[in-house]
Amino acid sequence: VSATAFYKAQPVIQFMCEVLDIHNIDEQPRPLTDSHRVKFTKEIKGLKVEVTHCGSMRRKYRVCNVTRRPASLQTFPLQLESGQTVERTVAQYFREKYSLQLK
Hints:
Elements: H1 12-20, H2 34-44, E1 48-51, E2 59-62, E3 75-79, E4 85-89, H3 90-98
Antiparallel strand pairs: 1-2, 3-4
């Protein structure tokens, strides 16, 4: 016999606030503490999430982990249209590409 929890559809940030008992996300110290990150990772790992930043093109992904670094510090190499490769943070990328300010 297998037991599976069903979760209501909601933004990931709202789910995180519920899991970590955060009443106001704006009062949350950034980044998450290690204990908060571990607790949240245990709850979200394996769940499917649907991204909404691409308009009508909705994609679903299964969560495999939560990084130690916040989006404002996590970097990756981005190849520009000119062929040049630059370092970008995840936060910079979403701000530049989608005009989104990540929380």
